[in-house]
Specification:
5 helices, Rossmann fold, binds adenosine monophosphate, two-stranded antiparallel sheet, about 180 residues
Length: about 180
């Protein structure tokens, strides 16, 4: 299956949730058995030789593919969640969004120094969410971090926020 076919399966919703946003609806991509399998195969082929021990998914759309890829890679899955959701001791990171601040958390014992981590989310826009997730995972002192998105909005240039030594990849690229 081609990348064009997968790209065409993403539904664009203009002006959602607010005017000016071209919302990328991935439910139309996921509802097809063939698309879902192709996506998980692409991610497996990309990361199979990297020694990934944990896939970290960001709430909430990073929870769709994250566990599926973790199973294929033979890795564990760790959630990054919004405040008040994780039941044990957490560490957190605050980041600035367009309207006010946001906080994300991870269990303090979820990752170890031996872990090679793939942080996964559905979409890279400004990059604020993933930078916060990257900083959070780094605080736990893991061995190596890879970053992956299903979709990158290229014109927002979110990828420039990450240090050169971090490999950042996305499966599908959109202009806006
Ligand atoms: P950002 O922190 O700006 O990179 O935003 C990334 C997060 O916001 C992701 O978790 C996405 O789920 C969501 N998001 C931002 N822009 C869009 C968009 N145009 N379509 C769908 N989701 C978006």
């Amino acid at each position: 299956m081609s990348i064009e076919t997968l790209t065409a399966a993403v539904r664009n919703i203009p002006d959602f949730p607010i005017p000016g946003i071209q919302f990328k609806d991935i439910t139309t991509l996921f509802q097809s058995q063939e698309h879902l399998k192709e996506l998980s195969d692409i991610l497996y082929e990309k990361y199979r030789d990297r020694g990934i021990t944990k896939v970290v998914g960001i709430e909430s759309r990073g929870f769709f593919m994250g566990p599926a890829v973790a199973i294929k890679l033979g890795a564990g899955f760790v959630p990054i969640r919004k405040p008040g959701k994780l039941p044990y001791k957490v560490i957190e990171e605050t980041y600035t969004k367009e309207y006010g601040d946001d906080v994300i958390q991870i269990h303090e014992d979820a990752l170890t120094k031996e872990d090679v981590v793939l942080i996964h989310d559905d979409l890279l826009a400004t990059g604020g969410t993933m930078v916060a997730a990257y900083n959070l995972v780094k605080k736990l002192g893991v061995k190596k971090i890879y970053i992956n998105f299903l979709i990158e909005l290229e014109e927002l240039e979110g990828h420039v926020l990450f240090p050169d030594e971090v490999e950042v990849s996305s499966v599908l690229k959109f202009k806006v």
